[in-house]
Amino acid sequence: MKKLLTTCFATLYLCAAYAQVLTPDWESSLSGKVKWIQVNDWGIVIAACDNGLFGLDPRDGTKIWELSDVTKIQEEYYNTIPGTPLVLIDDKGADAKTLIINGLSGALVFDSRDEGIEKVLSRRLVREVGGIMITYSKASGDGVALYNFNDGKELWNTPMEKAKGRTLAQPVIDSEGHILYANGSRLFRLHGQTGAVLWEAEAKKDYIDLFFSPDEATVFAVSGSPSDLFKAENAEPSALTVSGGVGKFSVQAHQVATGEPIWKKPIQYSKSKYSGVALGESDYLLLHTLSANRYSYDSPDPLWKKEKIGTGGDQLVGVYPTSDGMIYVGDDGSGRNYFNYVDEAGKPLWKKRPVVTGYISHIEDQGDAIFYITSKGANFLSKENGKELWTGSKYLSSDFPVSFVKDSDQSFVLLAEGKLIRVDLPQKDWSVIGSSFDFKGEVPSGVRLVGEKYAVTGNQNVTLLDASGNKVYHQYYEAPDQSLGAKLALGTLSAAAEVGAMVSGMSAFAYGFTGAVQGNDSYMNKAEQQAMISNFATGAAGDFSQLAKMRFGAQAASEDYKLILTERDKLLGFVKIDLASGEEQGMVVTADRTPTFTVDAVTNKLYLKSAEGRLACYDL
């Protein structure tokens, strides 16, 4: 799950003057000052203190594990490895190090300092052989090592010559569990169990990407110049060098079993940079800084001879098939998305490609038009000419992020331009449900479906409208002076619901043609994550594996309440509002204006710092 927010919290009090007293399910003493709190995908509560890192049982607060020597870890350097209980800590501070921890057992799987590693170049989970693979740089040269992901035991270590240049290509695992690894301009196939080199190939330029054919008998190795956006997605920020101008790159196909090149002449681009691929069942789309081309896995000759649509350094956002061809979308890195509509031969079907601003959160084919929602607005694109159907007074855009829900009849309801708007997809029209919300100067920022009604929310306000736009209730709570109100809004469950909807919509869009967006783990769905649990030993997961299975299949967030931070009679606290009735259901009060807390949207638990070295859990 995605973390909602943490800031800083202090002593906790409970107040019954205005609402029901909320008593904690449990409190746990951690003996050190709590810096931040998270809940990982397995439901384990992670607390970072000035005297160590702790893992707590979410059911009763029992301390499961403690790492007393892992201190002063900044939260931005703490990241879970998707679909696993493993945690990656990349500390960029004065005490720079890379740690990998099993978040269930607290076992230290890897510590770059103990291994004498100066810099970790990449990390890759190799489930087939039960390990985490590290590519590294030492004074003596680069290398690859594999560590058991339960106990941290080194399984093998294969030194390499020091790379001549930065390698963007992430290692990939073939169907036999062996590893394709690029080091500068050299490509290796390493035995998954022993690390022995099975074969080696070399290119003229450094490798920047690797991907397989659907049957995994062929590996495609891209070398040369990456686009700036491709580098931004695949390299550490400190390693980036933004540059303009043209470049060149090539793609060679190798037999996975032997490493032998399949083509006499590889795919060559002499005045463009590589921006990524989308993989289909029989062909793939290759994006570069001048345009895009479609290739069969069997030939270096493009299915599209030349596709004449603009320039720009675009990176692929997604591909959507239609009865006439496909629509593919490229991002220019400046908040603009370019929609390209081409037939099966790559011929543009629109004279001018439309440009849409904002993060694309939903898109769907409506037959003769494409409906889309972005963080900046919504519209229809005519399939006939690519023009927007809503113009003039019908043009729908917003300076604030657009929030949306689907109601019971599958109509989209959007909060945009300070209005609550219903979109009629069959008629390709929209109408206003409600507007002119009296939010005391605050801009409405979220909408949630409550039965057949709509809750419009902000940091300090919530109002409920029926389907006709009639106001059922409105609640306003004054913001505390000098509070972190804008940031605390992210700690409410409405944010989780909206983000979850965006991820789901984007996933459906991206997978429409590709089946996979190479190298982008953010599209990994819940079912895949659930299946991965079985790859970890029972001793590592224990009874939490069952808990994890339930969590992966759960809803993204509760839809029936909202938390608002406010101050009354010199008491500061979180008020829980029932969205159906607008009534207060409870209040947790704190004396601190910068609370340290996190909300687990799966189990509806509030975890917060209740004292310098104490953590409390509340059932919401």
UniProtKB/TrEMBL annotation:
Residues 136-203 form the Pyrrolo-quinoline quinone repeat domain. Gene3D superfamilies: YVTN repeat-like/Quinoprotein amine dehydrogenase. It holds the Pfam family PQQ_2. SUPFAM superfamilies: Quinoprotein alcohol dehydrogenase-like. It comes from the Bacteria. The keyword Signal applies. Keywords: Signal. InterPro entries: PQQ_b-propeller_rpt, PQQ_rpt_dom, Quinoprotein_ADH-like_sf, WD40/YVTN_repeat-like_dom_sf. Coiled coil: none annotated. The keyword Cytoplasm does not apply. Residues 1-19 form the signal peptide. This is Putative pyrroloquinoline-quinone binding quinoprotein. It comes from Marinoscillum furvescens DSM 4134.
